[in-house]
Amino acid sequence: MDFFDNHNKLFGAAFLLFIGLTAFVAVLPAIDNEQNNAPLPGAVPLSEAAIRGKALYVSNGCVACHTQQVRNVDMDKVWGQRPGLAADYASNRRTDFWRNTATLMGTERTGPDLTSIGSRQPSWEWNLVHLYNPRIVIKQSIMPAYPWLFESKAEPAKEDVVVNVPDAFQRQGMTLVATQDALDLVAYLQSLKQTELPGTAGPAAFLYAKQEQKAESTDQSKLSDTETSENGQMLYATHCQACHQESGEGLKGAFPPLKGSMVVVDKDPSLIVNIIMRGYDARQEYGAMPAVGANADLSPEQIAAIINHERSSWGNNAPKVSVQQVEQIVQKIKEMPVQ
Amino acid sequence: MIVGRCKIVSSLCLGAYLVAIPAYAEIHFGQAVALSVGVVALVMALGLLFVAILIKDVVHNYLISKVNQGIKDYPKYLENLSSRQISLLLDRMVKKGRVGAILLVMLTLLDFPSLAQSSQPTAGSLLSQGGILITIVLISIPVLAGVIFLFFKITNTLNRYRNQQREAEAGRVAAYLDGIEGKDLAATLQRRKDALDFALSHNELSGALPANDHKGLINNVEHEASLPFVARKRKAHVRPKVDPELSRLITWFIITATFWLVFGTTVGEYLGIKFVAPDADQFSWLSFGRLRPVHTNAVFWGWASLAMLGLGNYVVPRVSNTSLFSIKLGWYTLILINTAVVLGTLSLMAGINNGGGEYREYIWPVMLLFGIGLLLTLINYFKTVASRTTKEIYISNWYIVSSVIFGIVISIVAYVPLWQNGLGETIIQGYYMHQGVGMWFMLFTLGIVYYFLPQQLNKPIYSYSLGILAFWTQILFYTLIGTHHFVFSAIPWWLQTVAIVGSVGMIIPVVAGTTNFLLTFKGAWYKITDSYTLPFFLTGILFYFTGSLQGTAEAFRSTNLLWHFTDFTVAHSHLTMYGIICFLLWAGIYALMPRITGQEPPQITVGAHFWLALIGLLFYTIPLMYGSTMRGLMWMEAKPFIDSVSFMAPFWLWRAIGGSLMWLSHLFFAYNLYRMMVAPGTVDIKETAFEKLRSIDRVP
Fold it and tell me: Is residue A52 domain-shared with residue A171, that is, in the same domain?
C-alpha cells in the first residue's frame, strides 16, 4: 500500500494513534483528577519536620518496599480503616524545581503498608530504635538499618534525644543520639494517618470479604466461654509483638515486659482491656502504647484471645478471661465520655 | 554474628521445602503409601504373569515331545539358515560325515540367595501418623526387593528346565539334518549361500578415481582432531564489509552497553544478597532503597537501551539499503546516554531522586540528556529511512523508528509537571512504567528480531502481514494497560477496567508475533543445533510468548488479589525484561559483531553464557513465583505480616542463587564480546609463514 510506503504518513499515523491513546488513558484522566480533587476537610497538612522527613523517605527509596495505599479489598483491612480515596493524595504537589510529585503509593509490599503507621505505631522510641536497626525490635526483619541517621556520643547534650539500644548494637560507653534527620523521618511516619471521612458518608466497602465458614469445626456452642475461634498467638504477632516481642520480655528502656507483668496476670482484666482499647502512656521509662484495639477495630473475641495468649505464655499462668467479660468491659469503655 | 548468618543461610537452604509445604505434608505421606503399595502389587502381578507364560511354554513343549516323537515338522529348521550354517550343512551333505554337536547358547544364570521376606505392609487405622507412614514406606522397599529376587529365582529354575527341553529337541534336529540328502536341496542351499554372501565393492558411487575437491567445498580439515567437548557450530557468513566508521560506532555502543549490563547486574546481585543478609553493609550510598533504582535504571537505560540503539544503527540503514544518515549524531547519542546513566547512578546513590516512581527515579536534568539522545537518534533514523533506496519500508523500521518516537513521547509525558499533582502522578506513573517496557524496549527489540531472525535462518519472515497486525494491535492495546499496576487503588475504576481489557487484548499481538517467528523457523529447525545465535532467538521468542501472556494473566482482578505487591511482579519483570529483551539482544549482538569485526567468540564460552543465563533465570523466577503465591495466600488469610517475611526467606535465597548464575553468565558475555573485538594475540603460524613468503617474493 502506498500509504505505508511513505515514511511521513506511516510514522505520522503511528504517532497520532499513540498520542491519541496516551491522551485518553493518561494525560486527560490525570488532568481531570487534578482538577476535581481536594484534600478532605479533616486532613492535617504536614508539619515542617514531616516535610523534611518525607524528603528523606523519598531520597532513601523507602517506596521500593513500602506501599502507601489501602486497596478496597478485604485483605488490606489490616492497613487502614477504610479504602484509600483520591482525596487522600490530593495534597501531594510537585516537591521542588528538581523533583516530581511524590504520592508514594508504591508497587511492592516487601515491608508493611505505611498508610496509617502513625496510628498503628505512634511510639517515638520504637520508631527510632527500629530505624537504627530493625532487627533490634523485629528479629526476622530484612529492612536495611539506617545508622547514619544517628550519632554516637560520649556525653549527650541536654537537648539530645537519646535512643536506648541493646549493648550488642552499639559501641561500649557511648550513647546513641538521634540526628535531626532521624527525628524528621519519624515525624513524617507519625503524620501518616487516615483522615476521617466527614459527615455521615460511610467509606466504600472492602471487596472480596472472606465468607464466614459456618460448617467448620469452630462451632461456638462447643467452645467453653474462655475459648474463642480466634488465634491468640497470631493476633499477638500482628498487633503486639513488634514492641513486646515474641518472648514477651519487651525491650529494656523502651517497652515493658508482659512476662510476669502484674497488669497481664491480674485476676480482674479491666485494666488490660482498657490499655488495649485506649492505649497507655503513664510510665516515664517506657514508650507510649497506641490504642491498638480501637485502631485495628478488634472484636471482644479477638481481645480475649490476645489476653488469654498473654496470660498463658512465657510462664504466665493466670486464669483465662471469657469473651463476655471482655465484652462488658469494652461496652463500659465505649460509654465513657471521650476525654 | 557472621557465623550465625551463615548457619541461617545453610539451614534455610535445607529447610526450604519443608518450610514451604507443611500443610500438605500429610496428604503427601498418604499418597506415598498408596503409591508404594501400588508399586509392589504391580511388580508382583507382572512377575506372576511372566512366570505363568514361561510355565505354559514349558508344559507345551513337554506335551509335544511326549505325543509325537517321529513325525515332527523338521524341515522348518531349514528356513532362514545363515551362510555359515548352510556351508556346514553342504559340507556334511557332500562328505556324509557325522554330526558332532550343535551349538546352543546357554544362559548361565546367577543363583541369588533368597532374601525374600514374607511381611506385607498392613494399612491400619494408624495411617494418619507421619512416623508410621514413613516406616511403612521404608519397609516396603526391602519387601519389594524380596519379591523381585523371588521372581528371578523362579524364572531361572523354569528357564533351566526349558533349556533342557530345547537341548533335547536340538539333538533330534541334528539327527534329522545329519540324515537329509538330495541334489535339488543342495543346489537350492548353494544358491541361497551365494545370495547371502553377496557384498558391494564399496566404490559403486565414487568410482575408482582418486578423491579430489575441485570446488573447494571441504573446509576445516583436521588430521588430529581432539575430542569435541563443545558442539561445533557453524561460522558466521562472510558478509560485505561494513563501513569501518559505522563499525566503530556500533562497537562502542555494545561495549558501553555491556559495561552497564555487568555493572547493573552486579548491583542487582548485591541487592538479592541483601534480602538474605540485610546487614551486609550499612553505608547510606549502598542501602537497599537507593541501590534498587540504580540497578533497574542502569540495566534499562544503560544496558538494554544502548544495546538496542547500537543494533539499530546497523539494522535501520541495512534494511533501507543505504548508509546511516550521520555517524556523528550516533556518537552524540552514545555520549549523552552514557552521561545520563553515570550522572543518574551517582545522584541516586547520593539520595537525589525524582520522587519514587519506578524507572522515573532520575531527576529531569539527567533524563533530559537521555531524551536529547533519543531525539538525535530519531532524526538520524528518520533521515536514513527517508533516503532509503527501497520503495517499501521494511517492517523492522516500522518497529524501530516508532519505538524511538514513542520513547520520546513517554519521557515527555512522564516529566512535564503539568499533570502530576495528586493522583495524576500515579496515573502517569502507571502509563509511563509500562509504556517504557512495552513501547520502547519491546517494540525496538521486535524490530531487531524482524531483521536478524530471517537473516540468521537465511529465509524470509513467514508473514509480513502478521508483523503489521502485531504492530498496530501492539500500539492499540499496549498503550492502554499502564494502570493495571494500580488495580484496586484510588485511581478511577473505569481506568483500571480499561487497563485490564487492554491487557487481554495483548493476546493478539503476542500470538501474532510468536506465530510469525516460529513459522519462520519452519523447515529450518535443524539450523538451531549448529548455530550459536538461534538458541538465544528461540529462548527469547518463547519467553516473549509465556512472559507476555503471564502479564495478561496477572492483570485480572482475581490474580491481582493474590499476586499484587508480592515478588511475583519482580519474577515477571525478569522473565520479560531478561527472558525476552536480554536474550534477543544477545542473539542480535552475537549475530552482528562477528560480521563487523571478523572475529568470532569461543563456542564454549557462548554456551556457558547461554546455559548459565537460562538456568539462572529459571532458578531466579520459579521459586520466587511459588513463594509469592504462598505469600499472597498468607495475606489473604490475614496471617501476621512478619510471618510472610520469614516465609519468603528460602525463596529469596533461591533468587540470590539464580541471580548469581545470571551474573556469572554476563561475565562470560563480556569476555565473548572482548574476543569478538580483539584478534587473538598468538601468532598464526600459517598466516605468518605466507606473509614471510610474500615478503621474500617482493625482494627481487
Answer: yes
